[in-house]
Amino acid sequence: DKLHVDPESIGEASVDFGLIVREIPVAVLRPSHPEDIAILVAFAYNKFPIPFTISARGCGHSVRGQAMARDGVVVDMTSLGNKTTVSWSQSLGHYADVGGQQLWIDVLEETLKHGVAPVSWTDYLYLTVGGTLSNAGISGGTFRYGPQISNVYEMDVITGTGHFLTCSPHENPELFHSVLGGLGQFGIITRARIALGPAPKRAKWVKMLYSDFSAFTTDQERLISRHRRDQDEVLDYVEGQLFMRRNSDSWISFFSSLDHPRLMSLVTEHELLYCIEVAKFYDECTQSAVDKDLEKILKDLSHGPEFLYQKDVGYVDFLNRVRVGEMVLREQGLWNVPHPWLNLFVPKSRIADFNTGVFKNIVLKKNMTTELVLIYPMNNDKWDDRMSAVIPDEDVFYAVGFLHSSGFEDWQEFDLQNKEVLHFCEDNGIKQYLPNYSTESDWIQHFGPKWRKFEENKAQFDPKMLLSPGQNIFNHNQGMNSKIDGV
Ligand code: FAD
Questions:
Q1: Does the reported pTM lie above 0.70?
Q2: CB of 119 within 8 A of CB of 150?
Q3: Dist. CA 423 → ligand 1 center (Å)
Q4: Known catalytic residue: 61?
Q5: Would I find Ligase among this entry's keywords (predicted)?
Q6: Rounded alpha-carbon distances, angstroms, from residue 131 to 103, 122, 158, 180, 184
Q7: For the chain, which has fewer Cβ within 10 Å, the N-terminal or C-terminal residue?
Q8: Which residues line ligand 1 (CB under 6 A)?
Q9: What is the mean pLDDT of the chain?
Q10: Domain assignments of the chain as residue spans, ordered by start
Q11: Does 123 qualify as catalytic in the annotation?
Q12: Alpha helices in 15-172 (DSSP H)
């Protein structure tokens, strides 16, 4: 009774946020307990004459079918329900044990009841813990706190053989490191022990505008060079965006309507503006010092003083800011549309060329991009190289995200632009985040020196290649042919 084959269940599991790919499973499992998943995987592994594939699905916020399983079984993780337990220990301080199926927004709400909160976030909180830990989980706090995968102490994982294992840096470390950033290839995360810190109450939220790219990146890099967790004069969040006239709907709402005419004429004059977005959190204890601290941190940056805009918002409102945009888009019927996204990690040494080669020579010239373009740096030393996630081999690298929305008829045009961008990226040490490749050689190139280990781990933890076939890493023959043009 937990396996569903009705058209509605199958239909839901066949699409994702991208609305570009469709893969039809034979059934959807709605587990009540993690044991239900272990039984399914063990059955596929041991008993079934021909193994079938199995994909954990968080919310299906992937954009290229990564949580799908053609002719296999999709596990609807969210049916496991909510479970967050907050604890404290001498060695870890506060931590939370959370289900892999849980949304980060629910983890936040539960932990706040104890005056604590996770330290590392994504920009959007309606993503599952298992889904983001399978990638990395990044946002403006990554420069200081590391990605979400750097803030996990322990996990329970069901491997591709149906075994239920607890893993940590000390217990089954190979499994622990391979699952984090492992694109769902080695096991299904049913519990994660997450690092927590004291929950702030409010955020000073500041945006600064630049017309000069070099000044923009110099200042961003300077801001993230102060990244000690225990320091006062450090920001909690540093991101950045590309402002163009054409994508003004994606950035203008932050600013007061009185500023809109000035901003529009600025962006018309310069064609491209670069915006540094920062936040500093505070509570009752730090309230009296926060303005001074912020002033010190932002002192001597190269934007003109008239190009700084500031807000003071509640901590939860800050963390949950993307939800507001989602609601507006939903109302306009613009949320459930194709999302031909492209996310990249660009090494610091290539970012100036990237500005010329991509922002100016592709994005600006094509004049198609109407959505958010993110660009922000992070520090390599906040990542753990033993994990499966792949990042550039430089001390500082940039996350660049083209978060396109399109119509059902024209998403291919955005994909053509993406291809041009990827062509520019070839041989530049640039990596895809939330990667999407269709051939084994592309994956081998993506993982670089980590490929051998990745393959060995697959052979150990999922030898029959049952898990997360929608990533198309080990299941090429099954995946790509059935992908159809738009859903
Ligand atoms: P799904 O899309 O359902 O799954 C993703 C992959 O993980 C699949 O391969 C799936 O099989 C596997 N998986 C899912 N659950 C588990 C589990 N429990 N155990 C093992 N494998 C599992 N990412 C960021 O890093 N930072 C951001 O700021 C950010 N913002 C976003 C904003 C929006 C609006 C959207 C749509 C996405 C954003 N993402 C961001 C991307 C997001 O991290 C990915 O979509 C990710 O896959 C999480 O989505 P999900 O939980 O729905 O996972």
A1: yes
A2: no
A3: 25
A4: yes
A5: no
A6: 9, 11, 15, 10, 8
A7: N
A8: 17, 55-62, 66-67, 77, 100, 122-124, 127-128, 130-132, 134-139, 183-184, 188-189, 434, 468, 470-471
A9: 95
A10: 3-77+459-478, 80-198, 202-433
A11: yes
A12: 34-42, 104-112, 129-133, 142-145
Report the DSSP pairing between strands 164-167 and 152-159: antiparallel
pLDDT of residue 480: 42
| The pLDDT of residue 477 | 54
CA of 209 to the centre of ligand 1 (A): 31
What per-residue confidence (pLDDT) applies to 303? 87
Long-range contacts from 139-142, C-beta under 8 angstroms, 24+ separation: 139/237, 139/239, 140/236, 140/237, 140/238, 140/239, 140/277, 140/278, 140/279, 140/376, 141/236, 141/237, 142/378, 142/382, 142/399
The two structure tokens encoding residue 29: 């499992």
Domain 202-433, architecture per CATH? 3-Layer(aba) Sandwich (3.40)
CATH 3.40.50.300 fits 80-198, yes or no: no
**For residue 484, what pLDDT is reported?**
45
Which CATH code for domain 3-77+459-478?
Answer: 3.30.43.10
Residue type (1 letter), 281: F
Residues 175-199: pLDDT tens digits?
A: 999 999 999 999 999 999 999 999 9
